[in-house]
Structures are given as structure tokens and as C-alpha cells.
Amino acid sequence: MTQAVGIARAHTNIALIKYWGKRDQELFLPMNSSLSLTLDAFYTDTKVIFDDTYTADSFSLNGKEQSEKEIQKISRFLDLFREYIGEGRFARVESLNFVPTAAGLASSASAFAALALASADALKLNMTPQELSTFARRGSGSSTRSLFGGFVQWDMGTGSADSMAYPIDDADWDIGMLVLAVDTKEKKIASRVGMEHTVQTSPFYPAWLETTKEDLSAIKTAILAKDFETLGQITEHNGMKMHATTLSANPPFTYWTADSLLAQEAVRQVREDLHLQVYMTMDAGPNVKVLCRASDMERLVQALSAYLPAEKIIKSLPGPAASILSQEDWQASHQKFSERI
């Protein structure tokens, strides 16, 4: 029996300049470049075992065996690595997701980034993180960015080989984020479906692409200058523009709920009352993310608790790059997960 084992952890990221729309559905090539902040509060741990005694791939998520449909998704992703080096063994994938799944909190980003890194480690692939990001992208576009920490850019590239991510800045200058988790149930419209419908039917979409190029250039300048106010203003405007494209699709749709709107209004009110630099963004889901100074987080939590339950407000600092875990780390992760449920 020959076995190859890899274990990895990757954190979620929240896009400040949004990725919204694919120009190639199979290769997951984006319509625009994007930029994100990796978060330390949410992550996925994944173990991959390639074994010549296995007769098929299998996949367990949070201790539960997954459906054939989910296994097929994982198998297609693993095939990228198997075909790359002529690997013939099937694999067992076990994943622990410390992120609410499919609720606009980028669980797929951390999931596929962790799976990519664990697979590369198991198979002893000599890849740079940038090269590995082109593989991770084929599982989930935003996972490209979760291989890195801090502020990260995903360059749209000219093709599959150069559509990759790279780090911009460590975000170690008093950066924080609050997640207002108003609804962590699975969303009704998957990001992939929403993107495709928007690209095909929204008359606002061409303007989105054009202004996002300008936003990306401006936000990188703000990050390098550590200009938090400009960073926040661009983040909020870019996020709202993305959601405007869904409202202008035909037929229109939205990821916002009534609670999303209440959370948005709470942020505006607290910003006005406390005279703090706090800025909102939302991905393809109902939850509101608040970019803020890390040193202001406690005051913000206290103020926002007047508008929504404190348990729905989750604090996060910038997260690290994806990393290899030991077997002891994996066992500790299992223990932590079992204590949560």
C-alpha cells in the first residue's frame, strides 16, 4: 500500500474590489481583476489522502459523508493535480469548515484553497503559491486569493496560466473587519448562477467593468499610502455597484434581505453618531461586512449591539496565508470542531 497525505489550512477572504462575472465558465477566468482582505476568524482545514487501495474518491465535510454530486465536484478538482503529474490513485478528502457554508462568507474560497495546498503537499508538487493559485481558481475563483494573507490581488490575466493571485500588503496597520452575520442559512441563488445571469442581462454590467478597473487602481494606491479613509470609501462604493448590477438584471434579483438593510442602516447610524471611519461591503449573500480600524472594533461592537444581537457580530483581524498542518494540528482541529457542535 502506498499513501500520500497532505493537510492544510486556508482562511476566507472578503473582496473589497469584487469579482463578479466569468469570461470562461470552465477555466473560471474572471471578467475583471479583484482585491480582497484575508480574515483570521474563518477558515477551513482539509486532509487529503491518496491511496492505491482506494477504488473511488470520497469526501467528508464536517464529519458527514457527502453526496455523489459533491464528490464529483471534488473529483474534478483533484483530476487537475492527477493529470498534472500522471497520478493514478484515488483520494479521501476530509474537510472541517469553520465558516458558515454558502451564506456569502466565502466558505468556498477557504475550502478550495485548503484542498489545493493539501493536494500539492501530498503529491510533493514544486509549485509557487502563485502557480498553485491557478489550480485553486478552478475550484472557486475567490479561492485564488485565499492562498495569501492580508490584502491580495487576483489578476484576471490573459488566460489560465496567468490568471493568478499575489499579495499586495500585510494589512498590519490597524485594519479590522466586523461580520454582521444576519443570516447564515444557505442562500437561494448561488454566486455562479447570479453572476451568469447578471453578465447576460444587466445593462449596468459594462459600466461595472469599466469603473472597477478604476477602483482597483485607486484602492491599491490607497493601500500603499495606508490611506484608510480612501480605502474604505472605494470598498463601500464598489460593493454597492456590484449589487446594483443584480437589481438591474432581467429579471431583477438581490442577495439582500430585510435584515441586511437594517444592518446597513445601523452601520450608517453608528458612523454618524461616533464619527468613526467605518465602511460596508457585501458579497453574494445577505451578510454585511464592516471595514474598520482594529482599534475601533470594541466601540463598534458595543454601538452596533443596540441594533442587532451581539452574537451576530463577529470580529476579525487580517488573516495569514494558507499553511501546511501537522497530524497533531489536524487532531486539535477535530477536537475544536467537536466542541462547537
Automatic annotation (TrEMBL):
State the taxonomy lineage. Bacteria, Bacillati, Bacillota, Bacilli, Lactobacillales
Which domain of life does the UniProt lineage start with? Answer: Bacteria
Which organism was this protein described from? Streptococcus varani
Annotated keywords: ATP-binding, Lipid biosynthesis, Lipid metabolism, Lyase, Nucleotide-binding
Family, per entry: Belongs to the diphosphomevalonate decarboxylase family.
Q: Could you say which EC number(s) this protein's record lists?
A: 4.1.1.33
Task: List residues of the Diphosphomevalonate decarboxylase-like N-terminal domain.
Answer: 10-165
What protein name is recorded for this chain?
A: diphosphomevalonate decarboxylase
**Pfam families (alphabetical):** MDD_C, MVD-like_N
InterPro entries per the record? GHMP_kinase_C_sf (IPR036554), Mev_decarb (IPR005935), Mev_diP_decarb (IPR029765), MVD-like_N (IPR053859), Mvd1_C (IPR041431), Ribosomal_Su5_D2-typ_SF (IPR020568), Ribsml_uS5_D2-typ_fold_subgr (IPR014721)
Q: Which GO terms describe its cellular component?
A: cytosol
Gene Ontology BP, a term: isopentenyl diphosphate biosynthetic process, mevalonate pathway
Domain Mvd1 C-terminal, first and last residues per copy: 177-317
MF (Gene Ontology): ATP binding; diphosphomevalonate decarboxylase activity
Q: Could you say which enzyme class this protein belongs to?
A: lyase
